[in-house]
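Hello,

Following up on my earlier ticket. Below are the two sequence lines again, exactly as submitted.
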Amino acid sequence: MSLPGWQALHEEIEAFGATVVTVALDVDPDHARPFAEAAKATHPSLVDTTHATNAAFGFSNIPMAVWIDEDGNLVRPAEAASIEKAIGRDRPIPDGLPDIVVKLFEAVREIPDDGEAYRAAIVDWVKNGASSRFALSPEQVVELSRPSGGDEARAAACFEIGNHLRRTVSADAAVPWWKEAHRLDPFSLAYKRQAWTLVTTPAGADAPDLMQGPNDVYDTNLVDTVTNDGGFKAFIVRPHLGED
Amino acid sequence: MIIESWDVSADEFHRSTGWEPKPEGLCRGEICVPAPGALRSDGSFDVRVAADRLGMPIVSDGEVSALGPATLSGRALATAVAADPELRTFDGRPFRLSSLRGKKVILLAWSSY
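Thanks for your patience. The regenerated structure is below:
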């Protein structure tokens, strides 16, 4: 995840009447703020403290993106949005790391490497608009958005009420609601990673915990989820770029 | 949408969910879902009727409820018209994506975790 990379893309496309907008799915803006400030963005840099954009656009994980045309219509549904090769993907995993770290490394390396093709697709659309082969029709956008029925909608409501109780009552008050959101919408890694990091980051830590290992609050954790449930790649919504 | 009183106005419902209560129904983009009883002739609004018509789940904890998204298409999106939730800048100012009409927008969701 590289915010400076997105700022560089913004500088490349803004002359064509386009803008990058970044939105942090973070219930506490202070957790995202240091990363946002370090990126020195000249594009809108926003925060979504209620995860309202998850259900509104179909974001189930991060990073994901949608494309919106000049008239406010989506031309790509939510899909995985890396724009550069992940650092370390091609390097060997260093010896001597704890098993849990090696497992996560391995899961990350299995994520399909669509970054360069996805970045090129954005630039193509910015320059060619509706005639770009990457711009989809309204019907295709709806059809390719993530399957979402009663369970997923209820999960969104459970996440939201948990978040509200976290603010107004206590951190503990969110937990049963967030567990229910995880149960109802197991594909949404965003709801899970948000919950896990809040309980696995030590108080006073400089940065949020990315490892999100076994914990006393949730009976799930990142390492087990991405190694036992088909890997990170099982949660990735790959951009359809070749056949569009 | 968080609901602390069932006395939700049509405007609040529109701003929070993107669905605009009109005499012909609940409308977003090219879609209008008939919803008799949601918007009354005196202008008052029944959020529970609207939620039922749009397939929006309601969960409650004591006096507080949350309204989930509409479930009409079996997909996350009911229409390609982009949602316009109220977001914030890092200094707390409200920001709506609709303020960027006329530009192409790449909206990237990221996180600290």
